[in-house]
Write a structure and sequence with these properties.
4-stranded antiparallel β-sheet, globular, 21% helix, alpha+beta
Amino acid sequence: MMITQTIRGFLLALPIITLVAAIPIDARAQQATPGGFPNLVPALRTAPGCLGVELAQTAGGKQVIFAWFEGKKALVDWYYSEPHQRAMRTVFPDTPFEHNQLPLLADDAGPILAIVSVKFSDEPKPDVGPRPITSIGIELYGPLPGGIAVGSKFAPAALKVKGLRELPVSAGAR
């Protein structure tokens, strides 16, 4: 019961319609985006209120973007930014999107981690352009108090976590 209350109180897991993830993140895709699809990672990294961006690929083939934002305003500003809106129109040209983003999220929610995962089709379609997207998942989370970081943490240095215990690497090398 206590864990459930803690999760409800601190963990934000609200899906949003945003396409930060609709970009390939492997090295080849970073250099060229077939079919005119915009590469959003550089724009995301320099977006006002974005604290940091990390890229990863899962063993199951999902490409993942971890993007930390100062808060709701920074995330919503990114949603409405020109690069993001262009990407949305490129991937979903005929889909109307709701214009009241994150109505359930409090304006003072604090830092937000957007985790965006994209799975591309394993089958290349040379006549179509980029590999088709088979799934996109967008999830939002807020930092929970506590944890430990030895040497450094996964979150950007600008993100302060209440109760995080930070130790030098030498503390774990015994």
